[in-house]
From TrEMBL:
A Pfam family reported for this protein in Swiss-Prot or TrEMBL: ROK
Name of the molecule in the record: ROK family protein
Coiled-coil blocks: none
The organism of origin for this protein: Rhizobium quercicola
Family designation: Belongs to the ROK (NagC/XylR) family.
Length: 326
């Protein structure tokens, strides 16, 4: 019988859940909008409901639950510390609480970490020793897998790349600082710039895309850019510039073999990659310029596949034993 895990990819916009096999096959996936502003219990209720629906439709044994969630969080303690995209989530013992609800062991890690693990094991990062995964969506997150292990740092808080400062100015980030990578280059940031442009002369195509979609956001900018709208293309060029600046910093810090680009904005990878590479070629030291930057092979399933990987091989994703030896 095929071994399976229940996997959750908890984001500030969407909550995704699926049954995933040990081979990385995603089955019976469900997605709902995250009740991100309604507190801890509301989101746990959503997760419990999705779990019951999925588990009722499988005839196999569920080995456990893998949860990829926004940081900062402590995977060893099973605590979500203070994710800025989820209201009221401060020092929440989510592993204990979710395990009590579902009656299964729960393994927690940063959403970008588990996506990095999924891409390293089953996606675009297969065959590479050190993989840097960057997810650009509601926010920006990152994960590094090297020699088969996620790099966690102290308390599992490492690679919180969305909150590195890449500018001395800009909008205030949800973390309270100015100039954060996330505040300047996330899909949310691009969506805000698009909404502003839609209100000005020349922004008619972005406004039309917003109306067709039903709300402002990065997707409206991307759709307008795909029909060669000059305003949208200028916004995409600026987005690529910010992403290139951030990625250049990360290349210098981690020196990965490959950068895997995921998250909702990866749907615009073809529009962004030329500008990103141009910035890297200009700003990165020569030894770092040849690092390959590719779109995530698993697409939006990277987080689910990686979360399941926490269940099947927890020692490769969190060095629990090593971190007890002080």
């Amino acid at each position: 019988m095929t071994a399976t895990a229940l996997a959750f990819d908890l984001g500030g916009t969407d909550l995704r859940a699926a049954i995933v096999t040990q081979a990385g096959e995603v089955r019976q996936a469900l997605t709902v909008p995250t009740l991100a502003r309604e507190g801890v219990d509301a989101v746990l209720d959503q997760m419990t409901s999705l779990a019951k629906t999925l588990m009722a439709g499988t005839d196999g044994t569920i080995a456990g639950v893998g949860l990829g969630a926004p940081g900062p969080l402590d995977p060893l303690a099973g605590i979500m510390v203070a994710p800025p995209t989820l209201s009221g989530w401060h020092d929440v013992a989510v592993v204990k609480r979710l395990s009590a609800r579902l009656g299964l062991p729960v393994f927690l890690d940063n959403d970008a970490n588990v996506a990095a693990l999924g891409e390293w094991r089953h996606g675009a990062g297969r065959g590479f020793e050190t993989v840097l995964f960057v997810t650009v969506s509601t926010g920006i997150g990152g994960g590094v897998v090297s020699n088969g292990r996620i790099f966690h740092g102290r308390r599992g808080l490492a690679v919180e790349i969305g909150h590195m400062t890449i500018s001395g100015f800009g909008p205030t980030c949800l973390c309270g600082n100015v100039g954060c990578f996330e505040a300047l280059a996330s899909g949310t940031a691009l969506g805000h710039r698009g909404a502003d442009a839609a209100l000005r002369p020349g922004g008619e195509k972005i406004a039309a895309a917003q109306s067709a979609i039903g709300r402002p956001g990065a997707r409206a900018v991307v759709e307008a850019a795909r029909v060669d709208d000059p305003v949208a293309l200028a916004l995409i060029a600026k987005e690529a510039e910010w992403l290139g600046i951030g990625l250049t910093n990360l290349l210098h810090i981690f020196s990965p073999d490959i950068v895997v680009f995921g998250g909702g904005l990866s749907n615009a990878f073809d529009l962004l990659i030329g500008g990103i590479r141009s910035v890297v070629a200009t700003r990165a030291m020569s030894a770092y310029r040849d690092v390959v930057i590719v779109r995530a092979g698993l697409g939006t399933n990277a987080g689910l596949v990686g979360a399941a990987g926490l269940v099947f091989t927890p020692s490769s994703s969190a060095t629990r034993e090593d971190r007890h030896q002080t």
